[in-house]
Amino acid sequence: MEKLYEILTSCCPEIDFKQETALVTDKIIDSIDLVSIISDIEDEFGINIEMSEIAPENFDSAEAIWALIQRLS
Amino acid sequence: MNQPDLLTKYLHLQQWPDILSPSFISAYFIVFVFILSFIYYLMPKKARWTVLLFGSVLFYSLAGVSALLTILLTAFLVYTSGHLIANTNKREKKRILYFGSTVLVLLGVLFYGKMYALFRPPFYYLIPLGISYYTFSSIGYLADIYWGKAKPERNFFHITLFLLFFPKILQGPISSHTKLLPQLKEGHSFDYTKYCYGMQLAVWGYFKKLVVADRIAIFTSAVFNHYQDYGGAVLFLSMLLAAMQLYCDFSGCMDIAGGVSQMFGIELEQNFNHPFFARSGAEFWQRWHMTLSGWFRDYLFLPISRSARVKKIGKYFGNKWGAAARKSSTILIASFFVWMATGIWHGSGLPYLAWGFYWYLVIGSSTLLGGKYQQLRNKLGINEDAAEWKLFQMIRTYLIFSFGRLLTIPNDLRVSWLIFLRFFTKLSLWELFDGTLLEIYNKAPWTEYLILTAGILTVWLVDLIQTRCFIREKIAGWNIIVRCAFYSLAVLAVLILGKYGAGYGNTTFIYMNF
Predict the structure, then answer these.
(1) Which of B303, B326, B367 sits opposite A32 (nearest CB)?
(2) Which chain A positions have a beta carbon within 8 Å of B326's beta carbon?
(3) By the 8 A CB rule, do B233 and B427 touch?
(4) CB-CB: which of B282, B305, B326 is closest to A30?
(5) B306/A52 Cβ within 8 A
(6) B349-392 pLDDT, tens digit each
(7) B14: exposed, middle or buried (C-beta count within 10 Å: 0-12, 13-18, 19+)?
């Protein structure tokens, strides 16, 4: 989980990922950030995130992203 | 130019075929909305969606039988395709075949329509109105099914309503099936407050469109149609006004669409979020035509940047120049396709490709040079939270947008270039003060400029206040007499100050030709 926070904050240092719960829905991170984050996550955790998984419910919060990573690992 | 008589003015009576064109700007439409909403709330809840479908078909049929047939056939294609895709196993080749061929057909029809418009302008009404919008809504729906994110809609008539829903058919927003379809199906209870808020929002939309946008349009079309007669200063002013005109026209229509939908208890997706308060080009596109940029993000940018080929290219650059290069190259490749597609969506022709490429350069440079810009800011000791810096950024955004507009207004890149040159070679600053401006409005120019300025200031002020509070609610809390006076004044302002009638050529919304 710590590794995930590292990835998130290195992409967008101004966002408090421990608090936010509507990252995609409220457009707190834009599409460029999203692609960056997904790229880093795939490299770090050795998983492949399909298009079907790229949905607000999987990326709206750090917890949701972590759950996705767990599921795909 | 004679003002039409009162009856003609308010009933928007014009020569065939304009009278039969589906439009928000007519008393017929307003009466239609009231009657339809009345019937809607009379019907039993479960059947209320049929009223919307009936009304939408009626509204759209004014565009002609061929247009109506095209959209119905499209609905049938989308409905069938959705089920075929969903019922085919993920591993079968047929799945991508169904999806791909349907998307190609949809885009083909859209492309054909645009080409037809380009080569035979008087026949634009042969393109089904709203095709750019409902085509994208359909592709989004099918893509979500293909990716396993959604299930196909069981009722064909629900799909038809999703495409045809009359408030959003003309100019969007490009609705997502996940957000709009459930709301359409649900029979909404009558909510007096929401109904009133809807009417107020629509009145605001009419104000922006008829009082501000159409008034500016007289100025900008006069100047740009005779650009040789004006110096750089007037042309520059016209360019700035043209940006404001587009904003008021398009967001005004969005407010009418949103307001009318609210009267039926339906919330359309937001298309504008005070775009001129954006502090960068990237942020601008998160606030302007949000459903379009959102669509391109979900259905073009993400799939392209996630595709195997692009990932490969990214890896190549990554190995050469590091992780940042890998990310930048992926983004720059995907963005290129998105921006060229955005340009083409707006118009077929070189000016629109140039416009798309222009924005690609703007956004791409900030992606590529973001770090360098930050270093420069730090070096210059710029305080990013200072009000002056934010103001500078907003003005910069407005200018970037305006220059982009210059590429497409004349519909001829040579003219755009000539106009741009004049900013430097023939400024003629005195034209702003020597009465040239007064000749642009034939009747009562001082009054026109007064209303224009007051109108623009009002729009700016309302946008500013909107960032802090929900205005309609605030007004609802006022004393009843003050409130009634306010609402009456607002409606009167639209009726009296609005630019109506044949001859100005500006009563059609700009974005209706998409």
Answers:
(1) B367
(2) 39
(3) yes
(4) B282
(5) no
(6) 899 999 999 999 999 998 888 778 888 888 888 888 888 889 99
(7) middle
